[in-house]
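Field log, afternoon session.

UNIT: design team B
ACTIVITY: writing a sequence onto a fixed backbone
BACKBONE:
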């Protein structure tokens, strides 16, 4: 008997060697530590359907990864170093029609073993295998036959699938199940124990398949035609025809044209082509791609329609996220792209890669708006994953921009109409060490007109591919279930009726809360890198230069601050220490070294001084609170802890609004107290008797650290002071919000020239607009019936408190420029 078993084992090994002459695999989760396998318990691997080829692939990957096997006492032992079983086998022979799959005898034997041996647990590791990852497409019979899909393939079909897709096989190992936990409640009913374990495994395999393959895709032409036939679009066609006095057929043709312009045409061939091209591209321009917290996506994608909401820093964002998801075994999303990218050559490729195109504004085109809304509703109700940028455009300053409500509102309204498929938002942070468009951003911030995208600007970008742009991080933040947000805003939302055009009164509040939560979670997933830390420290120096040894110490200490009071579990910090980071920035050409006998000086020079503000702004929110606390000691030797908490709490709502900080106003007092404790523990502040906190002595290293730390946020506070100063000079009820915004922008620009401030966002009109809006939302300022801003004595108190933060020189400078403005 052993002889035949050995012979059979050799035969299988021979088949496996033959199979892997052709097959190439991409494997996820094949790591003992990542799986959380207990080394003291036996392991069984489970595949869903009986398949010799799947067995051979599983055996190869288990051996290749050195994964643990099972004890010989288990009833399932199908290989020399591991055991596995199939959940379902086939009934019927070669010439008979296949019936419904049935549970295998090995599966039943393992359940029986668990019931008979309650003291012996077995770890069951589900393994999903996909021969290619092509979604179904109704138009192609060949694709239906030769794609791994939701159906169970026959032997001939499986052979053809391996021939066509074997070189892009995906294998996913998943966290183990405890056999004893599953069967323990059914000790006296083997049949019920079988059903329970089978149901759990069946549900697991279905969820993984949903995440990897995505929902079944309709043919694009069918989808486009279907949009025009929806009730909402029919009504829009009728209204447009009446309004424009046009024939309904002509308006219907226009609606079809809109739908055709919008709709994606995702092609697995294009996705695989892009995977190859992008693999080459990333290896050429980046020194590595770090992906963090991707497990969050793998979990939520199994049962939900996922909306990926990344920050928008570069045109590369589109491609990078789809590439990362595909490489991690997830279906690339449908991506909302601006119509400006629908250019020759590029547009069709993006469309086949999953992009659907939208016009920048369609407020005055109700027909287009209805078609687009219906397209989005189809995406969400069918469970497609979708990606869009809540900021609307790319950030030119490195900060998170104020979210635009348009796409979020469409998503919420679609979900209200049909919430059978849960929607979950997944924030994504892109952390570039060197953004490709950095130099063009500088020009735009200086007033240069944004260059329109076309095939020629694309050619200019291609020339940059010989440059190195360092490393890039893709961090996934904490997921946000849309239903949870609606429950907080409107607990009775499930009981109300909605149609395509209905907009409940509470919709704006729900969208606003969702937008703020998305932006906060993106910032809470920030990737701190050597460039950002170096920029933060050097831009805090008075003349943008520092002794190398001093700079290294400061960077180590500021990184230690982030470790001492972590902003969020999803924040990632760089490896190494200050000396490594300075050397890295020098090699990237972002800082200059001036040799000096007493110690080399590291400096920011020329356009790099402005460019580095972009990377400083990426992580500014992490230092916002400790920097705010440090700034309170600019003009005060000592303050009571109570006064520190009060002053920082007054400023916090404005910083929260601008930097999308995650703490609520209810918890901020406790957070400020914790930061005071950290600063005292690190020697940046001193605790005196009577609950007083003082700053270190002048000239000490601790005082230098505190002063540089305070400068991380000081320009933001100066901008606030300018706005308050201009408003007070005009007087209550004398100026509109628009006029105040314009005047503040001009004065800030003037001040930046006079004082050489290397921060283009210092005179960013959008930031002044946001601060003025925050003054109104916090009740400090109000509008009269003519639109003029009115204020009470509370504004004077805010201005008086600001005197603690600003130096005498800056206060006088702001006073001078605000007098010019009045």
């Amino acid at each position: 008997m052993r002889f035949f078993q050995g012979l059979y084992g050799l035969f299988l090994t021979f088949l496996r060697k033959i199979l892997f002459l052709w097959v190439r695999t991409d494997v996820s989760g094949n790591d003992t530590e990542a799986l959380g396998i207990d080394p003291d318990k036996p392991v069984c691997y489970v595949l869903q359907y009986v398949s010799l080829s799947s067995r051979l692939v599983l055996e190869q990957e288990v051996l290749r990864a050195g994964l643990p096997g099972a004890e010989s006492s288990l009833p399932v032992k199908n290989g020399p170093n591991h055991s596995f079983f199939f959940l379902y086998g086939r009934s019927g022979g070669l010439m008979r029609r296949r019936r419904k799959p049935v549970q295998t005898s090995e599966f039943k034997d393992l359940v029986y073993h668990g019931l008979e041996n309650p003291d012996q647990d077995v770890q069951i590791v589900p393994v999903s295998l996909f021969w290619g990852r092509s979604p179904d497409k109704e138009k192609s019979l060949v694709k239906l036959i030769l794609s791994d899909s939701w159906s169970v393939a026959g032997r001939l079909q499986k052979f053809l699938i391996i021939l066509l897709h074997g070189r892009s096989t995906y294998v996913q190992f998943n966290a183990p199940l405890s056999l004893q936990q599953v069967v323990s409640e059914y000790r006296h009913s083997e049949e019920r124990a079988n059903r329970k374990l089978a149901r759990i495994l069946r549900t697991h395999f279905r969820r993984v398949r949903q995440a990897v393959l995505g929902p079944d895709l309709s043919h694009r032409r069918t989808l486009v035609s279907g949009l025009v036939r929806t009730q909402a679009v029919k009504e829009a066609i009728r209204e447009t025809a009446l309004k424009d006095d046009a024939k309904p057929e002509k308006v219907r043709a226009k609606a079809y044209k809109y739908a055709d312009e919008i709709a994606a045409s995702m092609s697995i061939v294009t996705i695989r082509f892009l995977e190859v091209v992008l693999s080459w591209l990333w290896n050429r321009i980046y020194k590595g791609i770090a992906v963090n917290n991707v497990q969050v996506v793998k979990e939520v994608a199994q049962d939900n329609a996922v909306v990926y909401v990344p920050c928008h820093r570069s045109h590369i964002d589109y491609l990078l996220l789809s590439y990362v998801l595909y490489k991690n075994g997830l279906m690339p999303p449908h991506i909302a792209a601006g119509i400006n990218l629908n250019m020759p050559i590029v547009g069709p490729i993006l469309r086949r890669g999953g992009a659907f195109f939208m016009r920048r504004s369609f407020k005055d085109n109700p027909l287009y708006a209805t078609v687009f809304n219906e397209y989005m509703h189809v995406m969400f109700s069918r469970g497609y994953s979708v990606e869009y940028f809540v900021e609307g455009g790319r950030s030119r300053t490195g900060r998170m921009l104020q979210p635009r409500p348009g796409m979020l509102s469409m998503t919420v309204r679609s979900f209200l109409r049909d919430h059978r498929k849960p929607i979950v938002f997944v924030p994504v942070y892109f952390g570039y060490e060197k953004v490709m468009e950095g130099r063009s951003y500088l020009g735009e911030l200086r007033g240069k007109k944004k260059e329109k995208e076309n095939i020629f600007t694309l050619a200019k970008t291609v020339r940059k591919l010989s440059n190195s742009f360092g490393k890039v991080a893709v961090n996934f933040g904490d997921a946000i279930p849309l239903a949870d947000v609606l429950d907080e805003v409107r607990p009775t939302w499930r009981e109300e009726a909605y149609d395509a055009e209905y907009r409940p009164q509470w919709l704006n509040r729900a969208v606003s809360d969702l937008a703020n939560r998305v932006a906060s979670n993106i910032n809470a997933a920030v990737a701190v890198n050597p460039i950002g830390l170096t920029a933060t420290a050097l831009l805090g120096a008075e003349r943008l230069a520092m002794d190398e040894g001093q700079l290294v110490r400061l960077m180590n200490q500021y990184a230690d601050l982030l470790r001492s009071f972590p902003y969020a579990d999803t924040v990632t910090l760089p490896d190494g220490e200050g000396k490594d980071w300075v050397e890295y920035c020098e090699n990237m050409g972002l800082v200059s070294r001036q040799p000096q006998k007493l110690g080399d000086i590291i400096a920011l020079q020329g356009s790099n001084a402005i460019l580095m503000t972009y990377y400083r702004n990426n992580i500014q929110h992490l230092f916002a609170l400790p920097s705010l606390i440090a700034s309170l000691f600019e003009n005060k030797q000592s303050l009571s802890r109570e006064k520190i908490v009060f002053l920082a709490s007054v400023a916090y709502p404005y910083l929260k609004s601008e930097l999308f900080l995650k703490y609520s106003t209810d918890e901020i007092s406790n957070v400020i107290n914790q930061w005071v404790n950290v600063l005292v523990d690190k020697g940046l502040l001193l605790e005196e008797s009577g609950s007083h906190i003082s700053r270190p002595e002048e000239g000490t290293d601790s005082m230098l650290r505190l002063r540089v730390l305070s400068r991380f946020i000081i320009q933001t506070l100066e901008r606030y002071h300018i706005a308050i100063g201009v408003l007070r000079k005009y007087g209550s009820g004398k100026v509109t919000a628009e006029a105040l915004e314009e005047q503040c922008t001009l004065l800030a620009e003037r001040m930046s020239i006079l004082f050489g401030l290397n921060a283009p966002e210092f005179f960013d009109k959008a930031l002044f607009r946001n601060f003025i809006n925050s003054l109104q939302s916090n009740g400090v300022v109000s509008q009269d019936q003519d639109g003029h801003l009115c204020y009470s004595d509370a504004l004077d108190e805010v201005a008086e408190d600001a005197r603690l933060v600003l130096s005498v020189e800056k206060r006088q400078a702001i006073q001078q420029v605000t007098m010019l403005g009045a």
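LOG NOTE: DSSP finds 33 helices and 23 strands in the chain.
NEXT ACTIVITY: expression trials, pending approval
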